[in-house]
Amino acid sequence: MIVVLAGGVGAARFLQGVTQVVPQEEIVVIANTGDDSQFYGLHVSPDIDIVMYTLAGLVDEKQGWGVRNDTYHTMQRLSALGHENWFQLGDQDLATHIHRTQLLHQGETLSAITEGLRQHMGIGPRILPMSDDSVETHIQTPAGLIHFEEYFVKHRFNVEVQGVEFVGSKTARPAPGVIDAIKQAEAILIAPSNPIVSIGTILAVPGIHDALHEASGMVVAVSPLVGGAPIKGPADRLMRALHMEATAVGVTRCYRDFLDVMVIDQQDAHLAEQVEDLGIPCVVTDTIMRDQQAKTALARTVLEAAGLRY
Amino acid sequence: MIVVLAGGVGAARFLQGVTQVVPQEEIVVIANTGDDSQFYGLHVSPDIDIVMYTLAGLVDEKQGWGVRNDTYHTMQRLSALGHENWFQLGDQDLATHIHRTQLLHQGETLSAITEGLRQHMGIGPRILPMSDDSVETHIQTPAGLIHFEEYFVKHRFNVEVQGVEFVGSKTARPAPGVIDAIKQAEAILIAPSNPIVSIGTILAVPGIHDALHEASGMVVAVSPLVGGAPIKGPADRLMRALHMEATAVGVTRCYRDFLDVMVIDQQDAHLAEQVEDLGIPCVVTDTIMRDQQAKTALARTVLEAAGLRY
């Protein structure tokens, strides 16, 4: 069994490769839920949805999230009724949030709901939220603490970051199956996701960091930073704001406690030595997932780095 | 000020006439909320919405409810996720329910939410829910008690009716403004709505029946039954099930405690004498609201019957 720690778009694309190499039923995704938020009274789990829609073949590949060819009729009416509309939810996408919210109100856990959605969508890999408890990533800005999605989507990360807080993380428990999956995995792959607000959030759930440290399977991470910048999103800005080096070396430092191999892009080949100086073996490859072939090749390289061959 | 007691489609069409005759700001609609229900965890107020969409010019005139040219993308996905789909909610329509549900969860009252929706939709007449408390119309069937919408929409009223219950009505209070509006009205018009499950539900809210009885304005009702059958819906079936005569005479009996004038259709002219035998003056006219002209003419006749001239 292979565990993949996952954020949003980068992770979903990486999983499109992994699912071509590893039998689907042997894959367990542990997904960040720190971006979860209420919009219009509905519980939205952005990273879980990106992963699900991608694995179900429903995703809007161009934007990386949402449902392909979705319409926005409900959103337009919500705007007409005076709602803010910076977080756009498509009509098909809304069904997921309405479904999830209804079941949460009925007392079901996010894990159970996610498992039900997975089955309805015919998705092979299991998808575990990192926690069934609320952990909300907030960004400290000069204007105060704001939810990550407000920073990310509303302000398009053009706001000075003074800190990051995972509200609720101290008392959150890993969702059922998370710790066992990490313990039993032949390999734990850390997707090329934001090390602060995607993977960092998962690591902030008490018990997960330690389980990775003690895991018998190899832990292999893919750097989301290539040439000092992420393919998408604010990873570099957040790292710099937190006085980290915004390179593959900085990402390695985030994971060094439990990391067995670091995979970096060929454009960053000159950083391999610095990664290895941290005591972490480094694999240099093409990490740009421009098409399915590239995704599959990356997955194969990462699995090989974990000592597995398919 | 003119008060209109309103159910769904028949009332909305009647209001399309009243609003052509009476200045909009002088109209207060008291709407049945006994059909309100949760669908997919969202609070739906069918009669309020029919009235609002109609007065806002958004309604699907052909079906009488919902938003014109609406799409059903969210519904299709909800079905794919395993939900029952006998209560179809369009994508634009959903915005109303999402908005209402969010504000109800935040502690706002149905009255306040309805007033906000009215303003956003640019609707002239005030619309008051009969109550901010939950009153749910249930139908007693051989298979047990079912919600009115299940009887009406899911079973298309092809179920034996043994009784009608207004669950919650005993402790419900009239919404703010309801009793005052009835007391202050120059006339109270009872729309051609179902006398059992639309108007009957309103009358079941403690205080409303007595306020009508004591009202200084004339109370004028329009029979929803023409030739012994309603234009739409199960009024005749419900009346027969409750051992009432399913004619304009039977409708008159429902309201005779407080009714000043009964308006019946010309097809039922032969019933006028029986209505008057109940002590209620009867006006015979064309009540079939086939077009705007007919709606306006009916409204004018009803207002004249109430002693008002515009």
List its traits.
homodimer; 310 residues; alpha/beta; Rossmann fold; seven-stranded parallel beta sheet; three-stranded antiparallel beta sheet; 13 helices; 14 strands; 18% strand
Low-pLDDT runs of chain A: none
At the first level of CATH, the class of chain A is Alpha Beta
Strand content of chain A: 15-25%
Count of helix runs of chain A: 13
Number of folding domains of chain A?
1
Main sheet strand line-up of chain A: 5-2-1-9-10-13-14
Largest interface: A-B, 31 and 31 residues
CATH superfamily of chain A: CofD-like domains
First CA to last CA of chain A: what distance? Answer: 12 Å
Protein name (chains A, B): LPPG domain protein containing protein
GO molecular function (chains A, B): LPPG:FO 2-phospho-L-lactate transferase activity; magnesium ion binding
Pfam families (chains A, B): CofD (PF01933)
InterPro entries (chains A, B): CofD, CofD-like_dom_sf, FbiA/CofD
